[in-house]
Amino acid sequence: MTRSISILGATGSIGDSTLDLIRSQPGQWRVVALSANCSAEKLARLAVEFSADVAVVGNEQCLPELRQHLSGSGIAAAGGAQALCEAAARPADITVAAIVGCAGLAPTMAAIGQGRTVALANKEALVSAGEVMTRLVAQHGTTLLPVDSEHNAIFQCLQGGNVEDVRWITLTASGGPFRTKSQAELEAATPAQAVAHPNWDMGAKISVDSATMMNKGLEFIEAFHLFPVGLDRLRIIVHPQSVIHSMVEYRDGSTLAQLGPSDMRVPIASTLAWPQRMDTCCKPLDLAAIGELTFFAPDEERFPATKLAREAAHAGGAAPAVLNAANEVAVAAFLAGQIRFTQISAIVARTLDSYAPVAPGDLDAVLAVDAEARVRAAEMMENA
Predict the structure, then answer these.
(1) Which of 17, 85, 340, 373 has the greatest number of beta carbons closer than 10 A?
(2) Do the domain assignments include residue 73?
(3) Cα 112 versus chain centre, distance
């Protein structure tokens, strides 16, 4: 039976992997909407290939180019933040929410409002608006499926079990490209080095987050909202091989782990086929060739981001939104060559210390906190 799908963030790495899986199942999917920030030529090409109903660019300045590339195709073209939300609200059996950063928050909320299934790949949205988003999920009866490899692993390990029986949920972290680097080497790290992840092929922002370990801090907060075991039952361990994607330990001493190749098509396929399974062309694990799996405690002296995220999670309220906004600003500045790698977490910490707004109660309040936190983070950079 043909199912309908929308992909928000279709030209990024998650979008590429999702569309690759759809290609492998001809005739089984109908594409409703595809979106990108800009990348008008690529978006138009994908929209034509998959006969999408509509293609949307978040950056409205890219709309004329998108319309030009789609001329004569019969595919609708739209642009701007409101158009993104309208596309996300179009009925679809499953919506893949993969817009990077807080820019994906409003479209993800619009997709949740359909009351169908949302495959969530935008961790920042749940970090910034966890309580608001989970309340909306409950209100509309939406099925929220995690796409992040770690959360998808936890989701799989919890199948057939009771949350009440969980002793620990352990998120694994690769440690990124700088795991063994000295403090002096971290001070001199370049954007090119930071985005060269040893295991995963990801976009620039998430690659830098992996290098600082902020990615794991954001995932810690995301796990808190997805899996109601409490903050004190969540922990992080560094696992450089990225073979075990996360683990769940139950009160009887049993630990279930999900293993798989470092390929995002595996967790995406899990969400697309849920509650069934589907074939992928991913290379199977060869444990004998891998040889050994190693584990280390996080080093929060050199990589303080996980500590900052844990403290923000315990503080609750608006603190996670402030953390996320400040991090997005600092990462962008680092990628632009404006600050050093080690200043990213320092700017986040200073922004958190300077700004403690009340807990946001709705989407507009979350976006207001995000905007103000960005201004304050920029001020921190000027005074750094």
Answers:
(1) 373
(2) yes
(3) 16
CATH number at residue 27: 3.40.50.720
Structural domain contains residue 279: no
Residue 173: inside a domain, yes or no?
Answer: no
Residue 4 is given by DSSP the state E
Round to whole Å and give the CA distance between 6 and 63. Answer: 19
Structure tokens at 344: 């990213």
Q: Are 262 and 199 in contact (CB under 8 A)?
A: yes
Q: Token pair 């074939």 is at which residue? A: 279
Domain span including residue 97: 3-146
Average pLDDT by stretches of 10, the chain with 384 residues:
96 96 96 97 98 98 98 97 97 96 92 97 91 96 96 95 95 95 96 87 87 96 96 97 97 97 95 96 93 96 97 96 96 96 97 92 95 95 78
Number of structural domains the chain divides into: 1
| Cα torsion angle, 225, 226, 229, 235, sign | negative
pTM for the full model?
0.94
Q: How far is 323 from 316, CA to CA, in rounded Å?
A: 11
249 occurs within a structural domain: no
SS (H, E, C) 25-73: CCCCEEEEEEEECCCHHHHHHHHHHCCCCEEEECCHHHHHHHHHHHCCC
Tokens at 148, concatenated? 């992040």
| Type of residue found at 249 | E
Residue 203, classed as helix, strand or coil, is coil
Token readout for 369 is 């906190």
